[in-house]
Amino acid sequence: MSSSPGLLLYRRILRLHRFLPPHMKDLGDTYVRSEFALHKSATDKTLSNFMEQWKEYADQIERERDRRELDMKLGGDGSGRNWGRDIEDELSEEQKAQLEKLKEETIKVRQGVDGSDDADGTSDRTSSSGGAAGVTIESYKPSSSSSS
Predict the structure, then answer these.
(1) What are the tens digits of pLDDT across the range 43-74?
(2) Is 6 exposed, middle or buried (0-12, 13-18, 19+ CB in 10 A)?
(3) Assuming Cys at both sites, which of 47, 80, 101, 116 could form a disulfide with 42, CB separation 3.0 to 4.6 Å?
């Protein structure tokens, strides 16, 4: 017995959400369930685009999870920001120059994208992209009680 591609993708996304912080997992799971339920009877053209976008989202979450796991294996905290000095000491001069160039380019891109002027790429606002659905969540803070 085989599952439909939509069901497999749905399950994949929910499994990937297990690696998110609890409040983001809850928000993501709720959103995914809602979107998949709304698109159960979508036209083939709409469904094709829907599936493509959610596959891209799942791929993005998977890459992020893999990056965090690699960072932790290299002695970091999973954020990618705490590369140990011992690793940098093992780099060749060419690799160090390439890493520095990458850091500079990343700062330029980040300043252009989020308006951050900080060299470390931090910014005063907190945001997270919903990826495939194109949803931006500004300063999401879960509430213990719902209010209207």
Answers:
(1) 999 999 999 999 999 999 999 898 888 877 87
(2) middle
(3) 47
- Which of 142, 147, 125 shows the shortest CA–CA distance to 27? 142
Cβ neighbours, 10 Å, residue 108: 10
In the structure encoding, which two tokens stand for residue 95, read together? 């690799």
- Tell me which DSSP letter residue 109 carries: H
How would you class 139 by CB atoms within 10 Å of its CB: exposed for 0-12, middle for 13-18, buried for 19 or more?
exposed
The DSSP line for 42-90 is: --HHHHHHHHHHHHHHHHHHHHHHHHHHHHHHTTS-SSS----HHHHHH
Q: Using CA atoms, how far apart are residues 139 and 141, in angstroms rounded to an integer?
A: 6
Query: pLDDT: is 120 or 77 the higher one?
Result: 77
**Non-local CB neighbours of 91 within 8 Å, separated by 6+ positions:** 99
**What are the residue boundaries of the structural domains of the chain, listed by start?**
5-135
- Is this structure's pTM higher than 0.70? no
